[in-house]
């Protein structure tokens, strides 16, 4: 079996990177025409390699390479093809490209596996547009009941169900995308680390032991808008000053010694009327709390909410809080992680087991199918920005380990 071809991997990455809205980095949003075009490119190439293609009602695309035993459970791999706003070209795409290169190597190697191999491009993994992450894989895992879909609206007021319908997908039938766990043996996701542990430790690969959970809230603070010149400082109800205190409250709580490992971020903030001569009347902001410890994740969230409420009361500002999404951390099955460790060792690649600060499709799929994740390095740990970078040669090392793990799991 020949080794993964870094040049071929690089060309696929470049091909997907061209599918973006204008502007810095890559913007290929969840349930957008660009995401569908990327899925179509993926399907086309996989069909040319002899795979059967299925697109489900949630927009996930599954390419299946038959094995010699049609009754054997499938070995799955893949990731997502959507991006955040002005994101990088590797987040998600690296895992889909790795699956594409895996199938090319299996086909060209001429030795079919016993198990069918399914490469999956999940739809809507990024929560950047609708707030909830991993939409496609959550449908596959049966984690998104229909009523939840109606709570998801993007920043332009477009409901998720409308965005799906515009692409030909019926949210009322998305439940048909649910996987039958008995069809799957294992699922492996290769992904960029989106942190800098591998770079700092010099390890080429990162088998993942746990994936952070995330609790996402939307706050709206209601102040008293008025003239910036005619209104004395005393007695103001300035929604933005209250929000500024809330942002620092979240940062301060996540950096205290009791919450080491928690990450709390206000990534979006909108001010109204956003005018230089009016005291801000209303501020809406997001809060994203992440942790590999479920209790600490939820207790940090509760603590931040209560401190923001106290700030608002003291400032005479009203507060509305809405839960957008709440996903628990997961510990991935040891036997799958060990298959990835063994694959790294057999390929002579250095590795370091680590946890994932980001959430992933693997987290959702792990609720129904034994799942593993394999990280490849992110330069300086940057991700969700145009500067995100991983060399194609580093991804090729990940593909070689993925091939070794798949072949070992196939032989079991
Ligand atoms: O937000 C995340 O952690 C992932 O990139 N969806
Ligand atoms: Mn991702
Ligand atoms: Mn991401
Ligand atoms: Mn992810």
Structural description of this entry:
- Helix 1 (6-17) crosses helix 12 (392-411) and helix 10 (334-346) crosses helix 12.
- The chain has 412 residues and is of the alpha/beta class.
- Helices cover 35% and strands 21% of the residues.
- The model has no long low-confidence stretch (mean pLDDT 97).
- Bound molecules: (2S)-amino(hydroxy)ethanoic acid (HGY) and manganese (II) ion (MN) (3 copies).
- One manganese (II) ion binds at residues 125, 358-360.
Provide the descriptors you would attach to this structure in a database record:
alpha/beta, five-stranded antiparallel beta sheet, 12 helices, 35% helix, binds (2S)-amino(hydroxy)ethanoic acid, nine-stranded mixed beta sheet, 21% strand, binds manganese (II) ion
Short overview:
With 412 residues, the chain is α/β, with parallel strands linked by helices. It has helices at residues 6-17, 33-48, 93-109, 135-140, 146-149, 160-166, 197-201, 239-254, 294-315, 334-346, 361-365, 392-411, and strands at 52-55, 61-65, 74-80, 117-122, 184-192, 206-211, 213-222, 263-265, 269-272, 282-291, 318-327, 330-331, 354-356, 371-376.
Major β-sheet profile: 9 strands, mixed
Q: Number of DSSP helices?
A: 12
Ligand roster: (2S)-amino(hydroxy)ethanoic acid, manganese (II) ion
Radius of gyration: 22 Å
Mean pLDDT: 97
Share of helical residues: 25-40%
Q: What structural class should be given to the helix and strand makeup?
A: alpha/beta
Instruction: Please tell me what the overall shape is.
Output: elongated
Strand segment count: 14
Percent of sequence in beta strands: 15-25%
Enumerate the spans where pLDDT stays under 50 for 5 or more consecutive residues.
none
Distance between the termini: 19 Å
Protein name: Zn-dependent hydrolase
Family: Belongs to the peptidase M20 family.
GO molecular function, one term: hydrolase activity
Pfam family, one: Peptidase_M20
């Amino acid at each position: 079996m020949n080794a993964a071809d870094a040049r071929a991997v690089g060309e696929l990455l470049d091909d997907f990177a061209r599918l973006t809205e204008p502007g810095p980095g890559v913007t290929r949003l969840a349930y957008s025409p660009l995401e569908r075009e990327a899925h179509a490119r993926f399907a086309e190439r996989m069909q040319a390699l002899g795979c059967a293609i299925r697109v489900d009602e949630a927009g996930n695309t599954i390419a299946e390479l038959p094995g010699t035993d049609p009754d054997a459970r499938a070995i799955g791999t893949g990731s997502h093809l959507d991006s955040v706003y002005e994101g990088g070209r590797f987040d998600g795409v690296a895992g889909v490209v790795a699956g594409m290169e895996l199938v090319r190597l299996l086909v060209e190697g001429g030795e079919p596996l016993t198990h069918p191999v399914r490469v999956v491009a999940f739809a809507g993994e990024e929560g950047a547009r609708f707030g909830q992450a991993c939409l496609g894989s959550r449908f596959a895992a049966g984690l998104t009941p229909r009523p939840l879909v109606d709570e998801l609206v993007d920043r332009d007021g477009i409901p998720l169900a409308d965005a799906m319908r515009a692409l030909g997908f019926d949210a009322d039938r998305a439940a048909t995308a649910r996987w039958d766990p008995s069809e799957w043996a294992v699922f492996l996701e290769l992904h960029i680390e989106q942190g800098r542990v591998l770079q700092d430790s010099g390890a080429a690969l990162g088998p993942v032991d746990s994936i952070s959970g995330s609790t996402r809230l939307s706050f709206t603070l209601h102040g008293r808008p008025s003239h910036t010149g005619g209104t004395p400082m005393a007695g103001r109800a300035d929604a933005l000053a209250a929000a500024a205190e809330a942002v620092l409250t979240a940062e301060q709580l996540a950096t205290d010694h009791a919450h080491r490992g928690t990450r709390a971020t206000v990534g979006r903030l909108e001010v109204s009327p956003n005018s230089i001569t009016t005291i801000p009347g209303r501020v809406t902001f997001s809060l994203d709390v992440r942790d590999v410890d479920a209790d600490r994740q939820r207790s940090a969230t509760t603590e931040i909410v209560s401190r923001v409420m106290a700030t608002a009361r003291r400032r005479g500002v009203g507060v509305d809080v809405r839960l957008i999404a709440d996903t628990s951390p997961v510990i991935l099955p040891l036997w799958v992680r060990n298959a990835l460790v063994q694959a790294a060792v057999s390929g002579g690649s250095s590795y370091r087991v680590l946890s994932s600060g980001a959430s992933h499709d693997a987290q959702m799929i792990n609720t129904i199918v034994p799942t593993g994740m394999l990280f490849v390095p992110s330069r300086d740990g940057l991700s969700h920005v145009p500067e995100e970078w991983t060399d194609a040669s580093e991804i090729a090392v990940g593909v070689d380990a993925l091939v070794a793990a798949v072949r070992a799991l196939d032989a079991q």
